[in-house]
Amino acid sequence: MKKIAVLTSGGDAPGMNAAIRAVVRTSHTRGLEVLGIRRGYTGMMDKDVTILGPRDVANTIQRGGTILLTARSHRFRSPEGRAIAAQNLREWGVEGLVVIGGDGSFHGAHYLQTEQNIPVIGLPGTIDNDLYGTDYTIGYDTAVMTALDAIDKLRDTGASHERIFVVEVMGRHAGHIALDVAVAGGAEEVLIPEDPLAIEQVVASVKSGLERGKSSSIVVVAEGVEGGAEAVRKAIVEATGLEARTTILGHIQRGGSPSARDRVLASRLGEAAVNALIDRVSGVMCGLVNNNVTFTALPDTWEKRKDVNRDLYNCAKTLSI
Ligand code: ATP
Asked: Which pTM was predicted?
């Protein structure tokens, strides 16, 4: 093997640069050339590429976002689009591909492998932590820290004004961020898509908290919960007659300098991905389970469900008395 390619795709996540850096530097050490594909699958079809050497990734480990840029491509969802992309890879002499992204990006990588016989390895790069086969995804830890920082600040103002804050955090299909943030931020209530408590139950819990002497409340809602934070706020206002505010944290959770954990995770997985390609392993995601590098067949990463930690869920409830 002489040349591999790397790309980032789908939503950006802090730590993607650390993963690119690890792929580039491990490849250099092992005598491989690396082609960086810009704008994900779009760049693969449009020939938007650049050679990456060890110095090109200097000073990137601490930077959020992705130096290779990212995109979502409709064209790549068709076999015709993927045939063009694979033809380009062959023209460039690419013998293996590292895809850093979420489950959508992994679907694309899987098809590239099965239809076009391109060896691929996926690296879990998404803040949602919703991929089976890794305890944590690259970017998740940083996103939790960012959301927690915002909640700590909201609690200051909530406590001073004796007000209820309903905070929406990211997580379209998964409540991982919401749960961690709720426990770490001492939230009074948490709603996740996996376990949508009836809003009435949450309202009742907020009300009973006020009766027990709580002067302010933080309610964390994952964006995937029907109606989002605003529906919860309205129900609370109707039931209590008190003022409540909604804060949607949104895209700030995607940005920022990656945490130490995300940098270490990305570095380990990037190194392991290159070594795996050299060993002719492909069609898998490289993840970390119990602090050991593991490989999971790409379809399993989206077909098998990574449930939220139920103990954590119960812990959030127990500690919010
Ligand atoms: P995130 O979880 O952060 O949103 P993601 O990788 O899941 O990241 P998507 O937008 O779902 O983000 O997917 C990224 C790209 O992967 C899509 O724009 C598309 O080009 C490709 N892709 C997604 N699903 C498929 C599919 N079923 N078949 C082929 N390609 C796909």
From this structure: 0.96
Phi, psi of 13 (to 5 degrees): -145, 140
Residue 163 and residue 211: Cα distance in Å, rounded? 14
- The DSSP code sequence of 74-142 is SGGGSHHHHHHHHHHHHHHT---EEEEE-HHHHHHHHHHHHHH---EEEEEB-TT---TT-SS-BTHHH
Pocket test for ligand 1, best of 77, 105, 172 (most atoms within 8 A of CB): 105
Cα(132)–Cα(287) distance, integer angstroms: 9
The CATH fold assigned to 3-139+258-303 is Rossmann fold (3.40.50)
**Architecture of the domain spanning 141-255:** 3-Layer(aba) Sandwich (3.40)
pLDDT per residue as tens digits for the range 129-187: 999 999 999 999 999 999 999 999 999 988 888 889 999 999 988 999 999 999 999 99
Span from the CA of 167 to the centroid of ligand 1 (angstroms): 27
Domain regions of the chain by residue span: 3-139+258-303, 141-255
Nearest ligand 1 atom to the CA of 11 is 3
Q: Would you say the CATH fold of 141-255 matches that of 3-139+258-303?
A: yes
Q: At what angle do helices 176-184 and 310-318 cross, to 10 degrees?
A: 30
